[in-house]
Design goal:
The complex is a heterodimer.
Chain A (H helix, E strand, L loop, with lengths): L1 H6 E7 L18 E2 L10 E6 L5 E6 L4 H19 L5 H18 L2 H6 L4 H10 L30 H10 L11 H4 L22
Antiparallel strand pairs in A: 3-4
Helix pairs in contact in A: 2-3, 3-6
Chain B lengths: L8 H4 L3 H15 L2 E2 L1 H13 L2 E2 L2 H11 L2 E7 L8
Classes of the chains: A alpha+beta, B alpha+beta.
Chain lengths: 206, 82
């Protein structure tokens, strides 16, 4: 909380009318909160860290565990300093940002990786739609373009922290209006009613 | 983007106990249910913060205060349903 107040100017936009969103309105802030995986609900929630001149400094799709969110916001503040550095060219800044977000993945904790697993329904959907599509970046690929597989032969889905950072590395310091949100949140299924009915049934998805 | 190194929970740690602990804690977190009486004070603090409704206004303030903007896009209202 102090970080939000101290380091950021805050803004909120309801994206109900955007074409890439799923469905919800089944949850009130007066209901029980439940834990979830990092990146869950990426089509319905996105966090952008922006500069005042409209550049995307960092972005996250979906919900994130508080510890992981704090880490990502700190990374964003470092990236913001890099963006403000007048001594570097745009190309240099982009290369440094790419290195920063990709290197950061190697130092993230096992706990973060465990929290960055996929929702079961998203994993199922991804396996189905990505079955014949070897270009889909949600799966790990080797240099020859083939999917990497586990010891048991199952295709390896990238953990959400890895997917989010790699997608950001490919979108380093883009203007917000050029940032393709639909592609950034393109993983898993668009519609799935995950309401566990803890504080009542909520509104049913249409 | 082909990645030279496969980064997963399996590869990020060589310590089986650490991985087992991380998995167990994550599973417990996914099952977590926090009732509104516990979350309400934090909710009140968050909703009392100054949330700009337009990016243009947030940008003007960010420029003046030399800060970055945390811009949240969500299906629903900050004080209502999501």
């Amino acid at each position: 909380m102090p970080m939000l107040r101290r380091d950021f100017v805050l803004g909120w936009k309801n994206i109900r009318k955007e074409k890439y969103v799923g469905d919800s309105f089944g949850y009130s802030r007066k209901q029980t909160c439940v834990g979830t995986t990092n990146g869950a609900g990426g089509k319905n929630v996105q966090l952008f860290i922006l500069s005042h001149d409209g550049v995307v400094i960092h972005a996250l799709p979906g919900f994130w565990h508080p510890e992981d969110l704090e880490h990502e916001l700190r990374l964003a503040l470092v990236s913001f300093l890099l963006w403000q550095d007048d001594g570097r060219t745009l190309a240099q800044k982009r290369r440094m940002y790419q290195r920063l977000v990709l290197t950061d993945l190697r130092y993230q904790s096992a706990a973060t990786y465990a929290r960055s697993d996929w929702q079961g329904f998203d994993k199922f959907h991804e396996g189905r739609i990505g079955g014949g599509d070897t270009s889909r970046d949600t799966f790990e690929h080797s240099a020859d373009g083939k999917r990497k597989v586990t010891d048991r032969g199952a295709p390896i889905l990238k953990p959400m922290n890895v997917l989010a950072h790699q997608r950001m590395a490919a979108r380093a310091f883009l203007k917000f209006e050029d940032f393709d949100i639909k592609a950034f949140v393109d993983y898993g299924t668009r519609f799935y009613d995950n309401n566990r009915g803890i504080s009542g049934p909520g509104r049913k998805l249409k | 983007m082909p990645s030279p190194v496969t980064l997963t929970l399996e590869s990020i740690s060589a310590d089986p106990e650490e991985k087992a602990r991380a998995r167990k804690e994550a599973r417990e977190f996914f099952k977590l249910k926090v009732p509104v009486r516990v979350t309400a004070p934090a909710m009140r603090k968050v909703t009392k913060l100054r949330w700009h409704k337009t990016l243009a206004k947030a940008s003007i303030r960010a420029r003046a205060e030399k800060k970055a903007i945390l811009w949240i896009q969500a299906l629903g209202d900050l004080k209502g349903f999501t």
